[in-house]
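Case study 2.
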Amino acid sequence: MTFDFIIVGAGSAGCVLAERLSANGRFSVLVLEAGGSERRFFISMPLGYGKTFYDPSVNWMYAAEADPGLNGQQDYWPRGKVLGGSSSINAMVYIRGAREDYEEWEAAGNTGWGWNDVLKAYRAMEDNEAGSDDYRGAGGPLHISENSRDLHPLYKSFVAATVAAGLTYNPDFNGAVQEGVGHYQLTTKGGMRMSAARAFLRPAMKRGNLHVEIHAEVRRILFEGTRATGVEYVSRGQTRTALAGREVIIAGGAINSVQLLQLTGIGPAKTLQKHGITIVQDNPNVGAHLQDHVGLNYTYRMKVPTLNDALRPWWGKLRVGLQYLLTRGGPLSLSINQGGGFFRSSPQHKRPNMQLYMQAFSTLIPKTGERPLLTPDPFSGFSLGLSNCWPSSRGFIEIQSSNPLQQPRIVANAYSTNEDISEMLEAVKFLRRIAAREPLASMIAEELRPGLKCMIDEDLISDIRQRSGTVYHPSCTCRMGPDPKTSVVDPHLRVHGIDNLRVCDASVFPSLIAGNTNAPAMMVGWRGAEIILNDQI
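Prediction:
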């Protein structure tokens, strides 16, 4: 089979690429996805992602190495293995990142990726329920829910207490400023998840020039010298080959894109030689510079009802289930994170360095085989969470053998710098200031985690290390930059030193953005497609 473009991975960026590259009808496009269909009830129902959290049929279920920064614990890294990728199993919060993030990308030599460039791409791909303005887009394929319906009453109390603690109310974190507290916009529509597959890929699959294969695991890129010519993949037990008349585009994400490049012979020479892989291009940056947001929750027993009371008992499940089936509304139509915001953990920071999350329920008691979002704790629980926006810690990803079925080694190095720990210490103290303000203060019965026995800095730091974990935003492992000595792809997403091969997903972020990474990953797909199509002229 020969196609103009071969896209490896139908995740957040890959789905956008497929739609944009096939839109004009000039080019034939093949999309190869290792997972299966996203048309499943617990994917479509927003709060159903608790069921997909440990489901190997839609989830790669990665595990990082034991991490000294997390007291030697091995962190769990779910990633989507399904059409839509992680956009099909994530918490659906839609955050673009701060203007300054993209200004830094451009200042680092990534021409075409500054704020004005990416804002244009965001506005073109969006269909925001709140309508169009100088920042929001309307009429695009990706519906963004304003998320003002069915919010729990505790949301207003949370906002009031946070304002009392010093933040201002912000009605739109994707607007003129990011700092403040408010409700999150979600990638949902009509009470159902708006994954990248639903927004971009499914409509595009009606075109005759787009071919999508599921359960197709790409094992290596094919080359003639240093020119990518196609891919070898396994589908339903058979090894197959597909050729690319123009380009191969890797869109596997921060983990899988690294794995495929290294298995193919593009990566650190020492790693490749150790596993007997023929070197196509020695580039030590492939898999390096790993960045990820890390966070934790403070959890409270409440004197007032929370979503625990609505979701835990059988009759509560029946009521919210019927509400969802009949109206596509209620708690099941929302995310775990109804509200939140961005704040500076100390005045010395020039812009917000922490993200805030409000969850009107708690899940301290684990449930085997799933994240217990649909079966929360048997008491009225409430959680305040946070994560760092720009961690200075750096990790790496590398293959462990030449076997493509063996999961790569993920070394996160969480909290490996003093800066990351000191700002988290400042931030958890701010969580307690929020909880101590009215109207929340009088609604809280007790702090369950970490509890008031944990007061001095030494104990707070120990708790941070013990209870923190990834918030599922790995990025920067194939980072973009003009210098091949420090990057993997150039500003046109072309792999340095290789012809007809690009990477287009969150792995190319030059640096981590402030906030959830799903929106920027889709933007990279949109902006990347513009660049790719322009290069064909």
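The chain has two domains: 1-97+193-291+397-415+471-537, 148-183+294-388+418-467.
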